[in-house]
Protein 1
Amino acid sequence: MSFSPLLQQLITALRCLPGVGPKSAQRMALHLLERERESARHLANALHEAVEKIGECQICHTLSETPVCDICADDTRDKQVMCVLESPVDLIAIEQTGGFRGVYFVLKGHLSPIDGIGPDDLGIGHLLERVVSEGIKELILATNPNVEGEATAHFIAAQINDADVRVSRIAHGVPVGGELEFVDGGTLAHALAGRRTLQRDIK
Amino acid sequence: MSFSPLLQQLITALRCLPGVGPKSAQRMALHLLERERESARHLANALHEAVEKIGECQICHTLSETPVCDICADDTRDKQVMCVLESPVDLIAIEQTGGFRGVYFVLKGHLSPIDGIGPDDLGIGHLLERVVSEGIKELILATNPNVEGEATAHFIAAQINDADVRVSRIAHGVPVGGELEFVDGGTLAHALAGRRTLQRDIK
Ligand SMILES: [Zn+2]
Ligand SMILES: [Zn+2]
């Protein structure tokens, strides 16, 4: 005896959500069908719309419903200061501190040779192109404060050969080994303010 | 600064899942859009299909894609022994023990005067009707072993006035205050085997 085919299909599909194991997928499916059918219908539509209509910003690569996101389209932002992040969720976290008025570049991850993720997969070529073409004066590397994030930051720093571009790393106010997305706004604002210039590995 | 409208809509919609707060809804939405678009599309379809096509069995009220569920339609089951449950998930748990060959009645919850949930909302009238019309010899009350489940079991027991119907309650092998759905199969099988006849409150 097991669940009916459609119920089993729903339970399996819910497993794609991060942190959802077999037991919680089962609870979620039954909860929706027993008590939240209207919400389940709404969730199905929201998923469908999001997947079909949310793409990424051509300029900074964050998630965006328009070809150019609101931040890149905002003329009041300081376009000479660029903050490099691993994920759109980190962009939101930085924006919520209210302490940054520059622009962004979202890498979508970090270098991971073991998984075959190299500079091209992260769009580092496009990043370097923007640094030159937009006359960036400061590049703040705000990848995660863990081994992979540090390695990615140092790799990018090593590519910048223009002495007029200040390359900085957010200060270690953020907990080492943690993930930016879980850091509170105050710590994050502090880490941004205390950023330091990185020593160039390649001069 | 906040998320784009469609992304915000998805994050809000994910909150309908049990145990999902604002932070995990955000992580889920971004995870799906950044890395699991195909799975998200699949989940949208699974939700849609489940909501449209899964109804309930006319006889036992468990979730079913057909008017009569597989168990009620199975002629090899002992139709004179009926097990009363609070939820379809409990039915699956009992079936998985392999120790029960009778039929079921799913109440979908428990009596809760404070929430305005009375006997009619649980279909107790239909249950009593089945007890008579199907010549049930034993009614096993397997509502949750907590205060509400006990009250519901005693309410039902008090309605059965036919001395030929044995009314039993699953044994307290199940942890008091717990929920059936989280009990392991062995304990559940033991609890079923050790069921005792309930004293009648009304004779
Ligand atoms: Zn942008
Ligand atoms: Zn049935």
Protein 2
Amino acid sequence: MKFDEAYSGNVFILSNPSFEDSNVVIYGMPMDWTVSFRPGSRFGPGRIREASLGLEEYSPYADRHLEEIRYFDAGDIPLPFGNPKRSIDMIEEYIDSLLEADKFPLGMGGEHLVTWPILKAFHKKYDDLAVIHIDAHADLREEYEGEPLSHSTPVRKICGLIGAENVYSFGIRSGMREEFQFAKESGMHMHKFEVAEPLKKVLPSLEGRNVYVTIDIDVLDPAHAPGTGTAEAGGITSKELLEAISAISNSGLNVVGADLVEVAPAYDPSEQTPIAASKFIREMLLGWTHKK
Amino acid sequence: MKFDEAYSGNVFILSNPSFEDSNVVIYGMPMDWTVSFRPGSRFGPGRIREASLGLEEYSPYADRHLEEIRYFDAGDIPLPFGNPKRSIDMIEEYIDSLLEADKFPLGMGGEHLVTWPILKAFHKKYDDLAVIHIDAHADLREEYEGEPLSHSTPVRKICGLIGAENVYSFGIRSGMREEFQFAKESGMHMHKFEVAEPLKKVLPSLEGRNVYVTIDIDVLDPAHAPGTGTAEAGGITSKELLEAISAISNSGLNVVGADLVEVAPAYDPSEQTPIAASKFIREMLLGWTHKK
Amino acid sequence: MKFDEAYSGNVFILSNPSFEDSNVVIYGMPMDWTVSFRPGSRFGPGRIREASLGLEEYSPYADRHLEEIRYFDAGDIPLPFGNPKRSIDMIEEYIDSLLEADKFPLGMGGEHLVTWPILKAFHKKYDDLAVIHIDAHADLREEYEGEPLSHSTPVRKICGLIGAENVYSFGIRSGMREEFQFAKESGMHMHKFEVAEPLKKVLPSLEGRNVYVTIDIDVLDPAHAPGTGTAEAGGITSKELLEAISAISNSGLNVVGADLVEVAPAYDPSEQTPIAASKFIREMLLGWTHKK
Amino acid sequence: MKFDEAYSGNVFILSNPSFEDSNVVIYGMPMDWTVSFRPGSRFGPGRIREASLGLEEYSPYADRHLEEIRYFDAGDIPLPFGNPKRSIDMIEEYIDSLLEADKFPLGMGGEHLVTWPILKAFHKKYDDLAVIHIDAHADLREEYEGEPLSHSTPVRKICGLIGAENVYSFGIRSGMREEFQFAKESGMHMHKFEVAEPLKKVLPSLEGRNVYVTIDIDVLDPAHAPGTGTAEAGGITSKELLEAISAISNSGLNVVGADLVEVAPAYDPSEQTPIAASKFIREMLLGWTHKK
Amino acid sequence: MKFDEAYSGNVFILSNPSFEDSNVVIYGMPMDWTVSFRPGSRFGPGRIREASLGLEEYSPYADRHLEEIRYFDAGDIPLPFGNPKRSIDMIEEYIDSLLEADKFPLGMGGEHLVTWPILKAFHKKYDDLAVIHIDAHADLREEYEGEPLSHSTPVRKICGLIGAENVYSFGIRSGMREEFQFAKESGMHMHKFEVAEPLKKVLPSLEGRNVYVTIDIDVLDPAHAPGTGTAEAGGITSKELLEAISAISNSGLNVVGADLVEVAPAYDPSEQTPIAASKFIREMLLGWTHKK
Amino acid sequence: MKFDEAYSGNVFILSNPSFEDSNVVIYGMPMDWTVSFRPGSRFGPGRIREASLGLEEYSPYADRHLEEIRYFDAGDIPLPFGNPKRSIDMIEEYIDSLLEADKFPLGMGGEHLVTWPILKAFHKKYDDLAVIHIDAHADLREEYEGEPLSHSTPVRKICGLIGAENVYSFGIRSGMREEFQFAKESGMHMHKFEVAEPLKKVLPSLEGRNVYVTIDIDVLDPAHAPGTGTAEAGGITSKELLEAISAISNSGLNVVGADLVEVAPAYDPSEQTPIAASKFIREMLLGWTHKK
């Protein structure tokens, strides 16, 4: 028996044992140092992996089987507790390595600030990048209580990096007045409250571009995702999020990377949030990465 | 440092420190003495305040900020445990004082029986009062197990007080046969199962009148509000309730008082019920009281 | 005082004390021996009974009262722990007795494998049987990990027994590729993702036939039924399931037996799952059995 | 198959099917109408029965097997919701019947007020009765908020009925000053904080008398019994309570009836409270009733 | 009705309405910004107040009644989220004001770092201060991940401020090797694992001095206090902590201030941790502050 | 960046990255197929690893630091769901490999049946093996419901394998009469109820022998370990178990392998059980394996 083969239960289901042979790399970012209300998303990646054991490996949505995709679950990036600055440097460097090795990075948060260093790495590689951002919160603050490195700021930073006109937000139902004003004035594309319908309308305009997709699990109503730090009533259903993921799959969009963030299992004794998240990861794997 | 200013964390977010300078008074009624199935709503007001700390102060639904409203969180009325009779007397007297001081009373339950003494006070001031009642339960019983003071009876009592034809119920999906018969025969307006659509149709007919709105959190499906005593499957979503609140805001209706009742936090370890309730209170503040 | 009359709290609300005088028999099957992911449905029947105490006895959906139906809650079949083979023999024999006594069997699971022996008994009595199957999972496996007696196989077995063309599945959103292929090739009728709409279209074609209905609670989204073993995001609402139950009631279909399975209370501290299940049982009693 | 035999899962494990052939009757009192802080003990008896399924039928403490005892689980007395007065009348009448039939009554609460009508019935039959009371709370109030029928008053009432000098309380760590003064002045025997040691010293003095034992589960520390309404830190361990039960068993005391009250399962998602309670009931059955 | 009197439910039970007339001030510090493992203690003070509603006002431990003490619950200090530096400045300034007004400060955390600014304020007033520190963790780190303001460092800082020989730690069962070495070499007094026995031995040596007492709730075993961030198995019972509090009360020690920290309610659905904490606060009020 | 180094969060804290360089191998056995009452221990190993992140790396009990031990966390053995026979074959083969490679096997369950194949492997290597068994349950059944492969039988099987006189059980408080009789008649050494005291007396007699130690977490009282399938009131404290582990460490006993089983996280929303288990694993690592 090879002891490397013994690993099971702590990686995403059907993970390919070899990094080299894989086109996709799943990785975790167990960080919640800047969370204001209810922290705990540092435990998200581990619980999504655990929940993946209950998944069917075939999807009737995508009519595809996980065995058709070669992905490697690389575990969690060992982020230093309480140090947002060094954490985001490590994430950027990590994504640099993945992109250099020509892998599709599929990240699991952790708090939403992690998307900022990921995009910094992508921006170095792709100069025509567009970002699809699915979330309850605008995340467009310039700073939070004087701190620019906050889980309320990543989308604002991304607008500065790649141009606000290349950022498409969906499902937004919470933020400061200034954030909504910025959305209006900056040229970014913000779609409030709804996700699937406006997304379908936007997708044709993104044809031919390299697109990164970031999903904050709190775009779901707390009924569908109680296990998150800043639950916000009035969200969409799991069904609508699955529909949105399928719409992207079916659009022929060139997705080059993606993440799913803010799963905080402590607030969800029923475990329905990591269970749903593992299904979304499966659909993202099957629909977005198969061309790799 | 003034010690009165030290208060934080136990009042609704951004509460104005002065009663006199405020147009609106938020108050709690920690009472669940007559609850038949699963008590616990006496802890509702405190948990709604706690959850309000996680709220954004701006609403993209109303495009208004809490700083535009001057409201004072007056804490809980000190109701005597286990004594429904004296409790409702105290509530009536309390509302009398608020109305005399020309404040908009925004109440948090507690069980639904509290709306009965509130309406007795309002009826003394307004002779053209209409009531909008949003709830899973008809609350039209004459008595419950021989007891007329029960959380199953307030709407029946209100019909007797202001005339059944002035009562508009929405979302009703549970009750005795006799209650549905009464609804039909008495001239009151009962809309079963749905809320937002029938409400929008009714609103124009209420123009120009003084209207009190009472919302029982269990109108929501238990998926959206598990933390309530008599959860009833088949309810509406948080989204629909937000839509209903907005519809009232946008109708120009003259709302003169309102309450939100039956949040029972013990049945909801995810805390999504008080989190949602605090958002509904914010929308009610922003949309219904700003003319004060 | 007669001690037999003392029984209360542990039978479904308003259960008739006499087996002989009843047309319907409610019974539990506390079995979860073959469950792969999260067991616990053996505690389902007891908790559904407990939750039934909070039900109104009148239904505004059916406009009928439980007193119009004569049903006897016969308790749980004493199934031998860990022995699927003997358990299913006992269930078959039990249903044989009920059918011989001309009762309408209304079963509560327990895992879904229980429906297999129930159908074996029904098949002996009715030669034109059709089955309506409402579920998140296809349950069409030939075996699970080499074991043909599994909660993933009952519908496949039923297809073999009564002919695949007599099986109508609704709401299916999870399964192996082979199961969906079997569904296509075998002539059975599988409707993916949705329940109420496709069901309404199918119902007229079943007129005049004897129909058995089996409902797996996990057809609901985990938001509406977190208390189940294999929660699967993207499901229907409680409202849609109530609509489906009503559609069957109103169709005049000749329902001859039914079950509701896979309630696993341990995963749902809010207890909304058994509370919803007890309401579905009420609607099934009122809508499907009243002709008995 | 006899349908009466089908009952399983909802009675205490190994319950004898026949009332007549049994020496002991287990019964539930699902009542919590007078509870001040956190209600819910009305669900206690059902959950203790459910948990009994996990019990070994043999006790290494008593070196006895449940098959050596003939007991009948008679279910719950159908107490009228919210009506303490009629409820206690029904309980008294119920115990009258049991005593007339020469059964050993073993009751499960429900709130502690139930012990008052039980003792009224016992007092009619036994004129030398002593009561052993094991509890965190003195329960010696004359009234609670003006109401003499309260779960804070039963022991005071019992003192009035059988003479304070015949009441022995153990483990008391909470009460009003007046209750502790009454304890001192009335001649009753109150042992604060500890149970097993003082009980062992008292037992010889009770030899030859007819003794009723009432145990409030909250005598345990909340660590050992979180599922109770008025949890009180600083209590005894489960081990000490088992030791106390054994001490009574081994003393040769003539126990004529007993109860275990205040299990409120909603506050204990781990279910350790009903699990422990079912074990205490087993030990009481094996140690106290076998002479019947 | 005076609206200031309406406050109830959100202050510690029986709180005196007047700051001026009170000798003791209870205050909350809702801060957990530096917590490494499981944050959430910012919600501690609010839940301790909520739980205090279930307390008896008389203590059989101290034989005293809360009415004998005049204390004012001043609410929470409005600490700025995520800003440890400004938070500790605000706490120090707050305590300065309380000491100037000659009040006994009784604080509720929040994380343990809050004790550092409290002690800075006390040190300015008292030059002979001794500190009794009851905790599972040594809290003697110089820094945590490079950060000197951490909930792992307060006791080290206090040693630097008032002299290690004036610090007495009890119950310590967790820390780095360096912390235990510092304890040995610095002259401070560390008692591992046990609390009540070593404390009783130490108390006589502190006679005549001004003493501050800080209790971290995690000194309790997680069985007795699951609701804390860094639960550490092998702790003491609630009973032993009550015994320790009583020992200090009975010693005649001149306690000049105290705090209880690290209650994090989210990890304790049974709520036994805030319930126990409110009892400890009661005993501290009754035993330590009555000479004020 | 090497991707193998990226692993973090899903292995036991400070795990050495190299199998070859390690003396100790930690491994998981995610199996609960034969559990009768409440399954779920298959999720134990993953949650113990997760909880280990909150551990201090130094132990004041052992005065040793985890860096002094070289251990490799090999992940979970990929046991086939629902197949006890093949699972135990795989475990035996796995342990064979570890022993051949001269590693100290430190296993995490899963259900207790896993200890049977482990001991079969050890028995092939050591002919003088003694077993220390710390548990609430005797586990001495010959079969359970006709099935010899059950979590109620492993100790009986081990008695047959290595001789009953070489088996030492501690803390036993539950079992069938036949099991206790077997314990008496077979020559094995069973110590009921207590652990630390009898163990200390037995240890000298085991000097010089090769000893395997198996700990079932349910030896703890449910207060200290609610997260287990067959919770049994009346157990020992975490403190006593730590004392027992230390006693073995200090005895100089030649421990050659060990396991900790039956952690079932679903029943413990406070997570205190995996938190405590990770501490026990730390103490076993530091005290029992350092001579490797």
Protein 3
Amino acid sequence: MNGARAVLETLTGGGVDVCFTNPGTSEMHFVAALDEVPQMRGVLCLFEGGATGAADGYARMADRPAATLLHLGPGLGNGLANLHNARRAGTPVVNIVGDHATHHKVFDAPLESDIEAAAGTVSRWVRRCVSVRDAGQDTANTIAAAGSTAQATGGVATLILPADVCWSRGACAAPVTPGQTTAVDENVLEEAARLLNREGKHTVVLIGGDLMRRPGLEAASRIAAATGARILAENTPARQERGAGIPLVERLAYLGEKATAQLTGVRHLVLAGARSPVSFFAYPNKPSNLVPTGCAVLDLGGVPMALEELAHLVAPGVRPVTISAQRPGLPNGALTAQKAAAVIGALMPEAAIVSDEAVTSGWWLPQATVGCPPHDWLTLTGGAIGQGIPLATGAAIACPNRPVISLQADGSAMYTLQALWTQARESLNVTTVIFSNASYAILGMELGRVGTRPSTDGRARALLGLPGLDFVSLAEGLGVPASRAITADDLAKQLSRALTEPGPCLIEAVVPSQSSFLD
Amino acid sequence: MNGARAVLETLTGGGVDVCFTNPGTSEMHFVAALDEVPQMRGVLCLFEGGATGAADGYARMADRPAATLLHLGPGLGNGLANLHNARRAGTPVVNIVGDHATHHKVFDAPLESDIEAAAGTVSRWVRRCVSVRDAGQDTANTIAAAGSTAQATGGVATLILPADVCWSRGACAAPVTPGQTTAVDENVLEEAARLLNREGKHTVVLIGGDLMRRPGLEAASRIAAATGARILAENTPARQERGAGIPLVERLAYLGEKATAQLTGVRHLVLAGARSPVSFFAYPNKPSNLVPTGCAVLDLGGVPMALEELAHLVAPGVRPVTISAQRPGLPNGALTAQKAAAVIGALMPEAAIVSDEAVTSGWWLPQATVGCPPHDWLTLTGGAIGQGIPLATGAAIACPNRPVISLQADGSAMYTLQALWTQARESLNVTTVIFSNASYAILGMELGRVGTRPSTDGRARALLGLPGLDFVSLAEGLGVPASRAITADDLAKQLSRALTEPGPCLIEAVVPSQSSFLD
């Protein structure tokens, strides 16, 4: 068989059976081989950021990687921002980048560029396949290198696949040897147990990664109940299980000042799947490191069992504290971001998957949805906006029987809006709510926070405005039915309908800019 | 003054007074400083590919660089594809990438990534500013490194600008020392003259770069007239002057087979601003190197004066052969890509700037516009689709008094469509024609050319279809008035109106897919 078929058979044999693709000429043998390997589902994206973000969303929900298929260095470039987010999420991605035929590279044709260098910025593993005989094994090794979210060891593994490897014969598929699972360090566990028993009231357990799923959250809750420790979660979990019957955990704040307040007086910080807290950005005369002075840090690692074993040591027989079912009432009147959050909390269906890139307009969402039926919440992990719509797309492909709610700021929506077309083409059950405030509101806030004092009507402020976007037109242009909500009542009616109808839908929720976000 | 102001004053002092920006928190001091340096025009782009492509288009037409302002590694990633095109065009770009404050980098905050590595893939120069005292000088050196298209020495020069450099005080602006201009190698010139005098009839002069402007074209035409040499142009010139009164030059074909036919029997190839011809992609059992066997290659370099000096040697007193004014007639009936080309040729106004990313639908455009009033033609230089709309945007800012015509394929339009919003926001005089054939037609063609035989109704072919895009809705959603043309008459009416009205406008020209492109 040719190399393309061996790659596809190795992928599907290794459990990778969805490929988010934006191919070009050098990928045509790979595309043609889809006719021969029907186990692989090819999903076309109109822009590579849609493909890489969808691969991230897919794996966060499926607990196994998807593949991408990108077109040489520029295609990889277009996908880089969402691969960055996937890297920060610890998501396994089998990132396949097509390249010129090996013998063609020396001619420096127009699309030639240094793929390895760009891929290295987001990948834990980069392999160029140099011979058709290696196509299967290189693919298998790439899948193994990507790992799995369920082991908290996922990452972006990039396979550079030259065209001649795809078209040459003499390839064979290879089996995937799973990577080693990381064990919990028993000594660290015992140290943590002693610490919690002795200093629980002065300790924060900061959890993240796979420990944001129900077993980790229940273990954390038991530890808190037994030792008096406080549980906090990382600011941007890749996937958090939430809702009625699940322990609630407060997230560390995005704003350094608020995070500092959350950690004031803490003497011990135990990290469980989370990284030591740092400020998202630097600000003049403010600390980057958010660990309080004199606070000791102990890292348990991100192994899913770590917290359960720790709970077994310090909280035997103790029950987790879970949140009870509750929903906000439906508000009335002109829509605001706060009222929109209430509407979403009032109507969120069972088993929803939320892709949250609502930025400043999302401030009230966590509280408004706290007691909704159990759901998964996916956040922007790497700060590279343009994640949300692709992420929702991939999550919907991973979980076709669950409703996906994509909560988007208008500014961030405009990076990868093309992913709506894939939602239409694949008839995905995604409801997108655009919080449309006609501005980069977070930059309006940050302009003050970094210490500048631009005039209110000057050229600087004018650069942060987004007048004239019409998301109803944009969505319809991409094949997604859309409507506009001006009042809370509009939003409630439109959201109710969207959640009961199959296929994608978009609601432009017109809200005022939240410049008082900090209050 | 602070570093941000010193950077801006150095830019404007060095002739760089337009900045295409998509900023984030780490760039807020730069944005705030725009209030203090009114000579700098900040142009907001909703996506970084729009900013980098606009910077390319601006410099191709202004003959001096624009600056970009991008947000850390992911922002650079989003802008990478059009920086790749700028690199291949030889366009000077002062590419400014904001970064975390220097002291913040060690904390590996969520947006941290290896900016140098990604920038290196598209830049001829990468400099990180490490101290506020260097801010002015580093900026001046970056401008000098970017060079200028007028010297055929342009390139992407990247300045990585940490937030603390921008906000700290103690900076001063610096003057720009222009780089050395490259001189023509007189020995090579004399060798070329001897060759042309002796073997002119067996010689092709392949021109490109700045030699595609009127002086270079006239010199080439004189050389051809005097020596019997044939003139060909590179396949994708950054900017070609064309039209009535200007020598016409045939471009080397995109398809290797056709290019091979163009070069059959040639014994000598003289390169003047063009690179030695290679196939755009590799294909099984087809050559990558398009230089005929036994053909000798002599490279004159890309100095604009090279051809004029050569003409002085071999064609003293000889006049260039120019094309006479001519236009196609207006066609009737259902629209096709060929008829659309005729409509454009019939109506193209004086001094138009054409951004050509029409891909397969553009096949008939060069011939249909050959005798139009003098105009500039900008092509896709690096093969990374998504160039055209941003390029048109930048060209319109460079030449506010010239009409810009942006000719776009539907597939490639969907990479950077957001740039239409900037056209609306800045009231730019750009008329976009989308050749809407609901497919990646070029890939349908390439699928056959690479030797695959996918079934006509299989999954592979289905991956190359683009059903359901509505460019009228999309344009209106971005604030650009739009209409749809089904007949040639529709297009003629709509284009006539668009070319007389100020501000941007988009026409979706519905055409059949050109699968018979090769015939």
